[in-house]
Write a structure and sequence with these properties.
360 residues, mainly beta, Methylamine Dehydrogenase, Chain H, 4-stranded antiparallel sheet, ubiquitin ligase activator activity, repeat, CDC20/Fizzy WD40 domain-containing protein, cell cycle
Length: 360
């Protein structure tokens, strides 16, 4: 059946799987969450270190957390006790975590700070491996491509860092006119997309120091960026409150494909690896989560429950579960995508026995 003939599913479950995160950071230009490429559902979150996060968890193993200067790892399982918190680092009162990013393989974690530094941590040993400089303002975006780590800053620059090299960075990318708030490498590691508070979306290749493609159609900051894992060169981007649109681009032909007005600030985008669908999370004014079918952009589900903008989003390694974090100081688990083996099964609406909200 052609997907354009399938009726959109609209469900509004309130997930019973929820993690309370006191004082979660609410700055939309920062990236405080990520997923590790291991067999754990992993996530980094912000919490006030004077308070203890909730231990009422119903989920798979899960690694989150961080406070203004502290950084911790959660291990959450269905066993009792349901959670374990391991402190990873303390940056002190004069610095704070602004972004994090797991390496594509292994247990190394990059941490961008408000003082413009990028730290590399071995999370398995809770040990800092290296500190790299180069930026002079906060580092709000990080993206890995094999051994190359890209960092974007409020100082309007992007630095390319080869962690095998002695130098702190090997090249500097110029072009943004404001803070870099989004960075994402394509799945083949050939193209880097950057979004900024100057409302522009740039695309760079592996060797360029100036953008090879420039897109200026958005009318608000571009933090949400996602490359399709299904089609080479297919890029999605989302704009802020004054824009509200998800736009699609073909970087191979340098063409603007389509635009969808979502009605709300677009905070995050992630593409399913299992099916040709994507998720967007939103802020003002609806604070919703939407599952879209591509390319028709029909809504498969609208997930509600967060009461403030949904600034953080991560996809589990198996490609089935997303975790969302919001200014309402909660993380919520949603089972939104099928497994690769069940792509062709009929859709169902209901809740799983593990307590996660599900739309299939």
């Amino acid at each position: 059946m052609d997907d354009s003939t399938i009726s959109p599913l609209t469900v509004q479950p309130v997930p019973s799987s929820q993690l309370n995160v006191p004082a979660i950071m609410q700055r939309p230009s920062l990236n405080l969450d990520t997923v590790t490429p291991s067999d754990h559902v992993s996530r980094l979150i912000n919490s006030n270190h004077y308070k203890s996060p909730s231990r009422t968890i119903y989920s798979d193993r899960f690694i989150p957390s961080r406070s203004n200067s502290n950084f911790a790892l959660f291990n959450i399982s269905s066993s009792s006790p349901p959670s374990k918190v391991t402190k990873l680092c303390d940056l002190g009162i004069d610095d704070s975590v602004c972004s994090v990013g797991w390496a594509q393989r292994g247990t190394h974690l990059a941490v961008g700070t408000s003082n413009g530094k990028v730290q590399i941590w071995d999370a398995s040993r809770c040990r800092r491996v290296r500190t790299m400089e180069g930026h002079h303002l906060r580092v709000g975006a990080l993206a890995w491509s094999s051994s190359v780590l890209s960092s974007g800053s409020r100082d309007k620059s992007i630095l390319q860092r080869d962690i095998r090299a002695q130098e702190d960075f090997v090249s500097k990318l110029s072009g943004p006119k404001s803070e870099v708030c989004g960075l994402k490498w394509s799945y083949d590691n050939r193209e880097l997309a950057s979004g900024g508070n100057d409302n522009r979306l740039f695309v760079w290749n592996q060797h360029s120091t100036q953008p090879v493609l420039k897109y200026c159609e958005h009318t608000a900051a571009v933090k949400a960026i996602a490359w399709s894992p299904h089609l080479h060169g297919l890029l999605a981007s989302g704009g802020g409150t004054a824009d509200r649109c998800v736009r699609f681009w073909n970087t191979t032909t340098n063409s603007h494909l389509s635009c969808m007005d979502t009605g709300s600030q677009v905070c995050n985008l992630v593409w399913s690896r299992n099916v040709n669908e994507l998720v967007s999370t939103h802020g003002y004014s609806q604070n919703q989560i939407i599952v879209w079918r591509y390319p028709t952009m029909s809504k498969l589900a609208t997930l509600t429950g967060h009461t403030y903008r949904v600034l953080y989003l991560a996809l589990s390694p198996d490609g089935q579960t997303i975790v969302t974090g919001a200014g309402d100081e909660t993380l919520r688990f949603w089972n939104v995508f099928p497994s690769p083996k069940s792509q062709n099964t009929d859709s169902e609406i209901g809740a799983s026995s593990l307590g996660r909200s599900t739309i299939r």
